[in-house]
Amino acid sequence: MAVTCGSCGTEAPQGAKFCMECGAKMALACASCGTELPEGAKFCLECGTPVGSAAPAAPQPPPSFAPTVDEEPPPVDAAEERRIITALFTDLAGFTSHTESVDPEEAGERLTLYHRLVREQIEGYDGRVEKLLGDGVFAVFGVPTAHEDDPERAVRAALRIQEGVERLNEEHPGLGLAVRVGITTGEAVVQVDRSRKDKVGIVGDVVNTASRLEGVAPVGGVVVDERTYLASNQMIDFRALPPVELKGKTEPVPIWQPTAPKGRYGVAIEDLAATPFVGRDAELRLVVDTFDRVLADETTQLVTIVGEPGVGKSRLMQEFWKVVDGRSDVVWWRQGRCLPLGEGITFWALGEVVKAQAGIFDSDPPWQAQQKLRDSVRALVDDHAEADWILSRLAPLAGTDESEIAAERTELFNAWLRYFEALAARNPLVLVIEDLHWADDALVEFLDYLIEQTVDSPILLITTARPQLLRDRPTWGAGKVNAASIGLSPLGDEDTKRLLADLLPGRLMTAEAQQRLLERCGGI
Description:
- The chain has 15 helices and 17 strands.
- Strands 5, 6, 7, 8, 9 and 10 form a six-stranded mixed sheet that branches.
- By secondary structure, it is of the alpha/beta class.
- It folds into three domains: 1-59, no CATH class; 64-261, Nucleotide cyclase, GGDEF domain (Alpha-Beta Plaits, 2-Layer Sandwich), CATH 3.30.70.1230; 269-488, Rossmann fold.
- Residues 53-77 have low confidence and may be disordered.
- Helix 6 packs across helix 7 (313-325) and helix 10 packs across helix 11.
């Protein structure tokens, strides 16, 4: 087994007492946390990691100093850029003292369980684990592939890590793990080795701050900075915590603790931050005209809004909501969102709609959620036998029945169809399904079934999606007389200038700076 010099990083054969490059005294170090080990050690004295045959890493600074991802010299074939990332640090509270009372091999096994859980959740939301720091883990979202919802992904992953640790403790009595997580979002310098896409380097205050937030997080809790909170609070419920003093910060840092994903995304669409509505009047008119046809003819219509991320799909929906809300007609507005990743999400969007209609909260105990769903369905369907038939097939959607959706697909679809018809019979229904490009085949099949079979019910089904929807499902909405599609292209320069003038009132900008900004925005 080779050993690595802690001074210069040169590898030397096992048994070497001094570095052949710089002359420094050699010491065996733990490959996981960097702790120096005595001759013949089989497990790390600090973290319990088995001493393997791989070359151990040079000693690492403690997590509170938030080391950069790469301490090696910059790769020759490297691309460097500034990028917005979300950094996540997680650590097992009190694990070092905990290992003093258990066998080193057992401590190593516990750490392995924890590392496996963290990696599964991070990678499950398309993040990447950059470094293991003993019982700490540093992960990043937005590198090498960025998503517009990276902060939300990081928070969801952290909440799943919490749940996973609790589950591990239940499955392994005496395990006693407790996790703390800190998350920040901000600009970092990212260096990617073009010859090795898996090799990156990340430097920035966002990394340091995430590490320090982890240190102030409550045991068993997650804390995030303001930027992460603002980027994800439409999807996640938070509670504000008192600002904290952090090393290197001149002012106290505001922090929030996520409690749970929101059960009904988009229901309170009026609460979304409103940017000026620019350049989409024609598209809004098409949606409003279609809605008027739904009301006048009591017919079902489909509108699909397609556009790249950030082009204004949600903003168009918000403006349409204002139109609907400003009318005297009583209209149901129900909205669900398809999720890209996670377990049990096939019909997630429909579940959000059903829970919103029944007034079910994530905090409701199962018996209360079931009662709310029963009351909601019986208020719509007078025949109790039919209501109970619908209820039994809606319960898995609403999460009030943990059993799998076991009925035949046709029977399920008929029950769900009857439910939406009953809704529309009471009041016209606007049903918004966002991010349809992430939907599973089963959900798309049901929505197609809804449009085909619901002829005489006043339902406006609006779906929003990225262009990949039409690449993956080129026949979506095709051949239907009650379907329309709206393609949102980037705003033109004049509309973008108007938007910038509204967003930056009173700011003087040179023509050159304005042109650079226009080119950078690209109408999005």
